[in-house]
Predict the structure.
Amino acid sequence: MVIMCQQPRPLDTRELIILIAPQIFSFSLHFGHLKLFNLHGIFIAHCITVIVQQERRGMKLHFYLQPSSGVPIYKQIIKQIKHAAAGGLLSAGDQLPSVRELSEDLTINPNTVSKAYQELERDGIIEIIHGVGTFVSKGNIFMEEKEKEGLMKNAVKQLFTEAYHLGFSFERLKGLFLEAYEDAAVKGRKGD
Amino acid sequence: MVLAVETINLTKEFNSFKAVDGLNLQVPEGSVFGFLGPNGSGKTTTIRMLLGITKPTSGEGKVLGLDIVKDSLNIRAKIGYMAEVPEMYGYMTGEELIRFCRGFYPSWEDGLVKKYSELFNLPLKNKISSLSKGMKSQLALIIALAPNPSLLILDEPTSGLDPIKRVQFLNIIMKEIVGTGKTVFFSSHLLSDVERVCDRVAFIKNGRLVKTDSMDKLKTQEKIIRAVFQKEPPPGFFEKPGIKKVQREGNGYLISVEDNFEEIFEACKKMPNFLIEVIDQNLEDLFVAYVGGDNDV
């Protein structure tokens, strides 16, 4: 019943750009391909429910959690820490908030935070030193090219699905894409 | 897995009406367990049986390893409980009620009372009859937490609280209870709260358990695949374990999946298609899907 409501409806160009562009460009941003784009703002406006600022050694980490999304909370945390590490927002040796602190800041179950941290440790992104704290690993934590590509592919695929629903021709979509690209480039330069 | 609460075929009949019907629940120790269902589905009756306030018609149950019929007094001394509508003596002040309750609990800690009443900024010197609904809930919560219980049973705990008090309340639960390995069992209609804090949930409808699983599994496995295939899939294609329901949608299908999601998704992707899309389900969607409709159980 809920699903039926999600039938395609006409969107104007602006809406479409707002809908699609941030996802693609913020992904690019995270992976450092397109450093000049400063589209973080749009991305944040998009998915905020909670913003937590952790200030540690001058380091700021924002978590945007969406408890009511279909993605488990622990996966949302993993993804954001991975992105932060791969994008250079976190550097090796940076301390992460403790399980207790983070669960309190975000009002989520400490078991959820533990689960995220354990998985990140298994992947070598962070190191948990018992009794001391949780730190970003000293090793190479750059995201695999393949993984980056997979994420971009998903974003692009989403774009095409959306375009299909709205009955957009390839040419029209291309126009929008380039327009959004130019727009973002201008904003990015101004941001610098 | 050690269970904090376990029920086997727990049943309660009022005359011929089955309020709880053969309920099998398992609540692991150290979890935050969300007990969900529409109004009148038997949540409160179940909780009252766990506490020994109501005797079951048949079936059995264990709370912290103790029998809910034989050891009910023992159980009540060990757990913290907050009722849906806290009924308290209106002529007493908060302080008097707290003093009255502390005698029942061997493990009562005055320090906890002080800590929480300061946090909630609750006027304990006032008569209870003069307190607002939210204040009464907070007082009931303080009394439930003061014995430092290893199991906390809460019936609709956050429904009377404003958003700020709700966050404070959930944080106390997270920090003081879950952080120390204790168990929380709570019923709620505020699914956004449940989504944040619960690791396991159970859906109950007409006194029967409809679904119970971990929150993470629900969120990774319960999805809807929208697919438009290039030609009709072969007969039997949808007969896979994990597919809950298949609906037609125009030229395509809406496939509701409850398990084996990756496998089913791969199989759909292999079929020549015009469109394959995954629709995530949040707790509200699942709640409506499991206990909303009258015809499908």
Observations:
- Chain B has ten helices and 14 strands.
- Chain B has a mean pLDDT of 89.
- The longest strand of chain B covers residues 3-14.
